Amino acid sequence: MTDAIPAAAPTRAARRSNPGTDLALIATFAALIAVSALLPAISVGSAVPITLQTFAVMLAGAVLGARRGFLAVLLYLAVGAIGLPVFSGGSAGLAPFAGPTAGYLVAFPLAALATGFFVERLPRSRVVASIPLIMLSGLAASFLFIHPLGILGLSWRADLTLSQAFITDLAFWPGDVIKNLLMAIVATTVHRTFPTLLPARARRDRTAATA
User: Fold this and answer.
1) 3-state secondary structure of 155
2) Rounded CA gap, 31 and 21, in Å?
3) Rounded Cα gap, residues 91 and 26, in angstroms
């Protein structure tokens, strides 16, 4: 019993987060997503161009974890919705949420949440050493949320059938693989430099506390 007390104390301390630091990280990644959206897009002949937004969205989840990554993307969307030109092509306001990109925008926070969820559950040794596992986490989140909701948005707002929207979305798949590879490389580098940045899993903490 006495051995468990010293182990529990640092675990509880490790679980505490600094609200100021969290807010700064969330704001920083929201700004990163905005910058990625404003970089020149690549037109693929459809209503939705290829941008680096998904790279930054997945990176937010992989680096900050599920909760803070989700909040960073929500902050980005909120800033754009109130009128700052941070969406692709410098657009702003509520119009993008009613256009062909609506499904992708709605999917972004969910994709960041899922990426963070998967990465948080990797063994810590794998987080700092395994680019493929972090890449697969991003791809899984993308194919769970971004592509399905993007296809639904294209079908709804671009006057396409679901099959036409699916074919349109296929143009984004090769770029998605490349962006998630780059995301995994950057995330792995960040975690090697700042190994305590990613939140610890509560279940693992409880196990350590009772060991």
Assistant:
1) helix
2) 15
3) 22
DSSP state of 144: I
Q: Which of 10, 93, 87 is nearest to 53 (CA)?
A: 87
C-alpha span between 95 and 111 (Å, rounded): 22
Q: At 65, is the secondary structure helix, strand, or coil?
A: coil
C-alpha distance across the termini of the chain, in Å:
10
Contact 146, 104 (CB under 8 A): yes
In this structure, the number of other CB atoms found within 10 A of the CB of residue 67 comes to 18
Q: Which residues contact 59 (CB under 8 A, 6 or more apart)?
A: 29, 32, 183, 186, 187
Pairwise pLDDT comparison (11 vs 103), residue with the higher score: 103
Q: Kindly report the backbone phi and psi dihedral angles of residue 141, in degrees, each rounded to the nearest multiple of 5, phi listed first.
A: -65, -40
* Residue 2 in this model has a pLDDT that exceeds 50: no
For each of the domains in the chain, give its residue range(s) and CATH number, in order of start. Answer: 21-199 (1.10.1760.20)
Distances, alpha carbon 166 to alpha carbons 109, 114, 141, 152, 173, in Å: 21, 22, 17, 9, 11
Pair of tokens at residue 127? 């987080």
* Rounded distance between C-alpha atoms, residue 10 and residue 67, angstroms: 22
66 Cβ neighbours under 8 A, 6+ residues apart: 112, 113, 114, 115, 116, 117, 120
pTM above 0.90, yes or no: no
